[in-house]
Specification:
The protein is 36% helix and 17% strand. It is of the alpha/beta class. Strands 1, 2, 3, 4, 5, 6 and 7 form a 7-stranded mixed β-sheet that branches. A hairpin with a 2-residue loop joins strand 5 and strand 6. Helix 1 crosses helix 6 and helix 8 packs antiparallel against helix 9. The chain starts with 15 loop residues before the first strand and ends with a helix.
Length: 318
């Protein structure tokens, strides 16, 4: 094999975005707003696994719609994505991608079917995992950008403490294969009490080059999509003075540059809460969360990371 190297230039790269949340958290509406900003010409494809519920938004957004029915095998999602690309889609929304994991004939059902046929664990997962891996390879090769809507459960732990039964919240956990979220360009957790507004104190992934595009003070918008699309085709992220109006109040917090006189206590506390929530879901999630902590905050939380969060993450992994 011959390798030819050229200067690295970002040019028309695709992005993968995940929006996770419970019913009523604004996943579908937010995905379509984001997609509209990314593809203002209307070349949006919507793969609908939820009995055509995506059509509820047909009067508000322009998009191509496909009704996807069971079985929700990984190969079916690959087929849908390829069909959307062939139809000319610039952005593909899949709602809900959680069906690939726990929907009818998704990979969990598939593993159960193999176990019922006599294939012993963990051998019953070999074929479903291979199909999922093949699907992920196809997703990573897709030239269109993809937005995945994922259901999420609020996990709890029941413990005995000081002779009393205590219920400890473990945070919101997206319903998907456990490594899926690590492949995302960006991911957000949405909740019903603040529909469409990302929670930066809950599991999320937001790299430094995208921080100015999103805020935890207002819903995900078309402006976020426009900024993301501009970045993906090689443009520069708008500086704070040119950022969308609803983001101006939080640019200093998310950009990583804070005035010398700023009081960091609130930001440190917010990041510490995010690390605690991530640690409850294991080492991988903690590592992802730590990568999103601004550089100027990390020195203040390094001790807490080593003393509290890492042991908690290792305990969560069992």
């Amino acid at each position: 094999m011959t390798f030819n190297f050229a200067p690295a230039v970002r040019d028309q790269v695709s992005v993968l975005i995940a929006l996770a949340g419970a019913s009523g958290s604004g996943k579908t509406y937010s995905a379509l707003r984001l997609a509209k900003g990314m593809a203002p010409g209307g070349k949006i494809a919507f793969i609908d696994t939820e009995a055509r519920r995506g059509l509820h938004y047909a009067d508000q957004f322009e998009f191509m719609h496909a009704d996807m029915r069971p079985p929700f095998r990984p190969a079916a999602f690959v087929e849908g994505i390829k069909a959307a690309e062939k139809a000319g889609a610039e952005v593909i929304v899949i709602d809900s991608f959680s069906h690939e994991y726990d929907g009818e004939s998704g990979i969990m059902d598939w593993a159960d079917e193999l176990a019922a046929s006599g294939v012993k664990s963990p051998g019953n997962w070999k074929e479903p995992k291979a199909a999922h891996k093949k699907m992920m390879q196809a997703i990573l090769q897709c030239r269109a950008s993809l937005i995945f809507c994922l259901r999420a459960d609020e996990k709890i732990e029941i413990i005995r403490e000081n002779g009393k039964t205590q219920v400890r919240p473990l945070g919101w956990v997206p319903i998907c294969e456990k490594r899926f979220m690590y492949e995302m360009t960006a991911s957000f957790t949405l909740t019903p009490d603040r529909p469409g507004i990302p929670h930066f104190d809950l599991p999320h992934k937001l790299q430094s080059q995208h921080r100015a595009m999103f805020t935890d003070k207002a819903p995900i918008s078309e402006q976020s999509g426009q900024a993301l699309a501009e970045w993906a085709k090689g443009g520069k992220v708008l500086p704070p003075t040119q950022a969308p109006p609803e983001q101006s109040a939080v640019n200093s917090a998310v950009s990583g540059s804070v005035p010398e006189t700023a009081d960091l206590s609130d930001e440190i506390a917010e990041c510490d809460k995010a690390l605690s929530a991530a640690a409850s879901m294991g080492v991988d999630m903690l590592q992802t969360a730590w990568a999103t902590v601004p550089k100027h905050i990390k020195p203040h939380l390094k001790s807490a990371l080593d003393r509290r969060h890492k042991p908690a993450a290792e305990a969560a992994n069992g």
